Amino acid sequence: MIQLRPLPRALLCALPALFIHHAAQADDLVLQRVLVEGSRMSQLGIADSANAGTVGQKDLAARTAYRPGEMLEAMPGLIASQHSGEGKANQFYLRGFNLDHGTDLATWVDGMPVNQRSHAHGQGWTDVNFLIPELVGRLDYRKGPYSARSGDFSSAGSAEISYANRLVKDLASVTLGQDGFARGVLAGAPEVAGGVLLYAIEGMKNDGPWTRPDDYRKTNAVLRYSRGFANNGWSVTAMAYRGRWNATDQIPLRAVDNGTLGRFDAIDDTDGGNARRYSLSGIWRRTDADSASKLSAYVIRNQLDLFSNFTYFLNDPVNGDQFAQPDRRVTSGLDAAQTWHVHRGATMASDLTIGARLQNDNIFNGLYNTRARQVLSTTREDHIVETSGGLFVESATRWNEVVRTVAGVRADRYRFDVRSDRSENSGRASDTQLSPSLSLILAPLDSTEFYLNYGHGFHSNDARGTVAGIDPATFEAVERTPGLVRSRGMELGLRTEAIPKMQTAVSLYRLDFDSELTYIGDAGMTEAGDASRRIGIEFSNYWRPLKWLAVDFDAAFARARSRGGNPDGDRIPGAVEGVGQLALTVDKVGPWSGALRLRYFGPRPLVEDNSVRSHASTTLNGRIGYRIGKDMQLELEGFNLANRRDSAIDYYYASQLAGETDAREDIHFHPIEPRSLRVTLTKTW
Q: Quick one: the chain helix, strand, coil %, rounded to 5?
């Protein structure tokens, strides 16, 4: 077992700042060895805040995940949930936010953005169902707008998932489980023509516990050719994903209480969707003693057809309220960064990084009234071209044995071009923002660091709102929204490894937004709302008391308030308040391994005056693994082992069921899945 410990202070002072901030960009062979055999990576002398970290392949593989999006829960304080069919993008919660389907959580996979701007269903739509966990080499995360490198959607947090160029061993895996679950994966990485050809193909089906099965079908493939190493080499990657599903959306509590519906019933059994994603990307890196260069480019084709019905018969008592939100887009982009080691000395080291990011989205989407997935009428149709460019400069300096600083500034410009089916909602708009950031790191002890962070960030608004003149459903005049909305954050943090074999981080933060993005259930979209403020505290702890035992514990609490003077109250509906996770992981006890993970998802206000609140949700997941020889593993996973009857998500709004004569305000919930088991057999060679 490789134990990752902080380097001596004198050695850190002599290292260039590039190595300090990017220690993980080592030779790829060494990187794979550390990720597979090492424990969670120490961040002392590397990170510039208490909330940044790296989770390696071994720790990620030890987690029990019901769905791919739950891999992001390796970021302390983050909750991934679902309120619909398995193929739909997950619901995320972090730092006092109901992030809906990804707003204010910037997610990247292999250098490509996952968040989709001006999406038909919600701003920042983040669908990670195309992930193949066996290929993930590492997850890098950070929270707060404290880095000039981060851009759109990153104010609450950001996650960067990197696929490995090489696999330790080729593998074939088959999983069977309850509720019609089946999954197969084949992956390998042979050497070809002086490089490595990584391939993987995945097939999956899942019905779930629903009265009308999800019938989720997924096919997924990755093909990558790479030469060189992680910090000196290049790769070209092609990905393809297709999924289709039925959806059991949230249901009203009143119907369950009076026996009209069961917990796993649906009201509109034609809800669901299908999604496709195809991408081609390339990354080139070059590092020498004086500088480091990185260039990446990508083209992504996303297609989604989504059918939802959240209010049932409120708007149309005859046909029902189902609506369709198709979205077709091609996203292309280019990222470049150049770092120079501008100073090296016995006690001082400094580097300067300049970077640029370009992105263009060519989007066709719409909103239609439907019945059983057949179009009845058109609410709106839009062709959107959204183009953005960002430049940043960041200076990282180690002044002496105790003091480090990271100072940066970022400039972004967005251009929105909307061609709608109504001239009142067509037009062009643009917006620009300058985002400074500063971090001060003090290391008075070899094993402890203190952090002071301040920075500005932003999220972009839906392009349609920047030029809108009327509401296409009611034809009432509407106020146009700004293209970019500023956030301001500040944070105090502590990270220590004073106790042997233990990594602890604590942070106290405040985050302000000039405008909150709010999810509107009956329209299935997000809209710009009032300003907001969040104050919170986070704690995370990783302890490995024995070679075969690791203990993870993290907890977070946030106080979220609206600052818009809303007469109904200052609570933000759905804003998460308290979350926590406790995990025990056992490894290398002979042929045995295992894990238990307890997750707590606290209650939230559902209305502005806090008169209606959700209940807390607690789940216990676990796994037991047994190695059969050197090349075969048998694993049993269990989900919701306590068989809790909790909610995965709760909303409060008005709806009307068939047979009801008027609208009724009610809690609408999506239950967590009951206890289920899955068994996996993996063969390596």
A: 5, 55, 35
Average pLDDT over residues 278-303: 96
What is the band of 22 on the pLDDT scale with cuts at 50, 70, 90? very low
- To which residue do tokens 């992105």 refer? 359
User: 């909330």: which residue's tokens?
Assistant: 51
How many residues are there in the chain?
685
Query: Three-state secondary structure along 20-46?
Result: HHCCCCCCHHHHHHHHHHCCCCCCCCC
Q: Across residues 257-261, what is the average pLDDT?
A: 95
pLDDT over 60 at 23, yes or no: no
Beta-bridge partner residues of 395: 352, 407
Q: How many CB atoms lie within 10 A of CB 27?
A: 14
> For 28, left (φ over 0), alpha (ψ -120 to 50), or beta?
alpha
Please name the residues in contact with 262: beta carbons below 8 A apart, sequence gap of 6 or more: 211, 256
Which amino acid is residue 120, in one-letter code? Answer: A
Cα distance between residue 356 and residue 151, in whole Å: 11
Using CA atoms, how far apart are residues 465 and 119, in angstroms rounded to an integer? 12
Average pLDDT over residues 117-130: 95
Cβ(77)–Cβ(39) below 8 Å: no
| Cα gap 509→26, rounded to integer Å | 32
Taking only the tens place, the pLDDT of each residue in 68-111 is 999 999 999 999 999 999 999 999 999 999 998 988 999 999 99
Q: In what order do the strands lie in the sheet with 664-671?
A: 251-252, 664-671, 647-655
How far is C-alpha 567 from the chain's CA centre?
33
Given a contact cutoff of 8 angstroms between Cβ atoms, the answer to whether 56 and 37 are in contact is no
Quick check: 271 pLDDT over 90?
Answer: yes
Q: Tell me the C-alpha distance between 93 and 534, whole Å.
A: 13
**15 has a pLDDT exceeding 60:** no
Residue indicated by tokens 């003149």: 469
The pLDDT > 70 percentage for the chain reads: 93
- Helix (DSSP H) and strand (DSSP E) numbers for the chain: 6, 37
For strands 484-496 and 272-287, give the pairing: unpaired
Tell me whether strands 157-163 and 105-109 are parallel, antiparallel or unpaired.
parallel
Query: What tokens appear for 326 in the block?
Result: 């198709």
